[in-house]
Amino acid sequence: MTYQLHYWPSIQGRGEFIRLALEAAGAQYVDVARGSKNEGHGVPALMALLHNPKIAHPPFAPPVLVHGKHVIAQTAAILLHLGPLLKLVGKNESDRLWAHQIQLTIADVVNEAHNTHHPVGTSLYYENQKPEALRAAQQFCATRIPKYLAWFETVLERNPRNATSPHPGTGPHLLGARLSYVDLSLFQLVEGLQYAFPKTLKRALKKVPLVAALHAAVARHKRVAAYLSSERRIAFNENGIFRHYSELEG
What does CATH list as the number for 3-85? Predict the structure, then answer.
């Protein structure tokens, strides 16, 4: 059964975490809003889903995954559903819950990254909150990024499978001994932070070698590498979550 991903067509945003999982698994999916209106896709199809009165559990905002009778919103919830289906998480409950915890922490970082350029409110343009954005970004770069990356490094250090089964070429893993959706999500988080705050990330990654190794290994994954070099991968831009404003990094 083909998965339907509903997300904005011109940004990576939170939908990119879903795209990476689907691409890494080689799953068949339709990126609905990026499709042709003539085929019933495009942004009108996305908006129709969001405002469909027949959906018993209406989504608040994209990303939304439609899989059979399931209509699932929120990135972490979508990946909780997809993980076992795509074999990107172990079958036991402990693994699934631990992966979900990690994913929710990644979501926290993503929200904080977004708030660096919109600290006052999302309804205001960046240009209307530059002083507050500068203060938020300075705090985020100085304390929050290092703290989060140090935690991910600790998770990698405490995964016993990284010590006993290093799997040369595949990199360390946050969970178990094989690629999981949280590995892909941490890769995307690092990618986004590197785009938004390149100077900060260059310094920070030197202190978290396992995080850096995971990021490099995911980029080498055959399907991920093919996706990253394809037209399906939307470039970072200043309309998404991760935005590069040089003045925010000093």
Answer: 3.40.30.10
**Tokens representing 146?**
């290092």
Per domain, the residue ranges of the chain are 3-85, 93-248
Q: What is the pTM of this model?
A: 0.95
Name the pLDDT band for 234 (thresholds 50, 70, 90).
very high
101-127 confidence digits (pLDDT tens): 999 999 999 999 999 999 999 899 999
Query: Which pLDDT score, from 0 to 100, does residue 169 have?
Result: 63
User: How much is the mean pLDDT over the chain?
Assistant: 95
93-248 CATH: 1.20.1050.10
Beta strand segments in the chain, E: 3-6, 29-31, 64-67, 70-73
